[in-house]
Amino acid sequence: MTGTLARFLAERQIPTPEDRYRVEVEGDIEDVNSVLKITQIRVKYYLKVVEGKAKEAREAFSSYLMSCPAAQSVIGCIQIKDDLILEEAAGSL
User: Fold this and answer.
1) Residue 89, SS3?
2) CATH code at 73?
3) DSSP SS3 for 73
4) Angstrom distance (rounded) from CA 71 to CA 83
5) Which strand (E) or helix (H) includes residue 37?
């Protein structure tokens, strides 16, 4: 998922080096009919962009899951919640 979003951002000329792009992931494992099952994955993306690129970053974020092989492989059985925390910096980064 992280790589797919990075690709979508790159297509919009939004770079994702380590100092501007990081991800936190959590998940829930529950007992479902006596079987341990991953039921939810929560992903928080932290992204710093130059001023004027926030709209494009939000557009990339709003559409990347539909093209993500990993997400599409599990989306029917594991709930995915994703969030983008965006910081827009004046000038260049």
Assistant:
1) strand
2) 3.30.300.20
3) helix
4) 14
5) strand 35-50
- For the stretch 31-69, pLDDT in tens is 999 999 999 999 999 999 999 999 999 999 999 999 999
Q: What is the pLDDT of residues 64-86, one digit of tens each?
A: 999 999 999 999 999 999 999 99
Residue 71 sits in which domain range?
2-89
Helices 2-10 and 54-63: crossing angle, nearest 10°? 140
The total number of structural domains that make up the chain: 1
Do strands 79-89 and 35-50 pair parallel, antiparallel, or not at all (unpaired)? parallel
What residue type is assigned to position 45 of the chain? Y
* Alpha carbon distance 81, 41 (integer Å): 6
Cβ contacts of residue 43 below 8 Å, gap of 6+? Answer: 1, 2, 23, 24, 25, 80, 81, 82, 83
**pTM of this prediction?**
0.89
